[in-house]
Amino acid sequence: MADLLSIEHSELGEKVYTLIRQEILLRRFQAGEKLDIYRLADQLGVSRTPVKDAVNRLALEGLIEIVPRRGTFVTKFGRRDIEELFDARCMVELWAAQKAMKRVTDEQIRQLEEVVGEGARILKKADGAFDYQAFSVLNARFHRLMLELSGSRKLIEIYDSLHTHVQVTRAMSQRALEACRLAQAEHEKIVGAYQRRDLKGLKAAITAHLESTLEGSLKVMEERGGAL
């Protein structure tokens, strides 16, 4: 019975963590907003323990700041944070591309093609109701696949350490349908460079994609008062 209770508590803790994390990534909890653990527990219908555990995990990920004697706040990302994040992404993704081009197989390129093809299908249906969440998942999968093509565990590890903050900027900058269409077109150019085994073209396509995403993130940041 004790083991069963432990499993149930673990599953509950994971659900609470996932829910709060999603609310932060989608900025339903605003940048800089103070989080009330007691209120969150009441809203979720759980005790304070899984909420506190979730908050501690999110603090380790950099999504939450715990300020002694002041409280718990959603982390703000300012211009410098965003620019440094994209500098890091650019270095990691370009280095991964250089390594990937030496070893990529036709089957791996087909995997990229499938992800991009699914993105195109989602956007084709967007005149009705645009499924942003599904497109966002594909977007993240596309970039993760590009890192995996490098075969470098260390590069993947570095990218994963950036991923949480990447999700915030992606969620904010690509909510609009037009921004997603632009990202889709840029992904197609990246895949085209892989198909041609064109390293120079690949690096140019990745750089252009990250620069346009950075521009979109900074624009949204300004619209939201200078922070994401």
Describe the structure.
The chain has 228 residues and is mainly α. Helix content is 75%, strand content 4%. It has 2 domains: 2-74, Arc Repressor Mutant, subunit A, CATH 1.10.10.10; 79-223, Up-down Bundle (Four Helix Bundle (Hemerythrin (Met), subunit A)). Helix 5 (106-124) packs antiparallel against helix 8 (177-196). The radius of gyration is 19 Å and the shape is elongated. The termini are far apart. 29% of the residues are buried.
Topology:
Layout: H1 2-25, E1 34-35, H2 37-44, H3 48-61, E2 64-67, E3 71-74, H4 79-101, H5 106-124, H6 132-148, H7 153-173, H8 177-196, H9 199-223
Antiparallel strand pairs: 1-3, 2-3
In whole angstroms, the N-to-C terminal distance is 45 Å
Mean pLDDT metric: 90
Backbone CA Rg: 19 Å
Number of alpha- plus pi-helical segments: 9
CATH homologous superfamily designation of the largest domain = GntR ligand-binding domain-like
Short description:
The protein has 228 residues and is mainly alpha-helical. The chain contains nine helices and three strands.
Task: Sum up the structure in keywords.
228 residues, mainly alpha, Arc Repressor Mutant, subunit A, Four Helix Bundle (Hemerythrin (Met), subunit A), 2 domains, 3-stranded antiparallel β-sheet, 9 helices, 4% strand, disordered N terminus
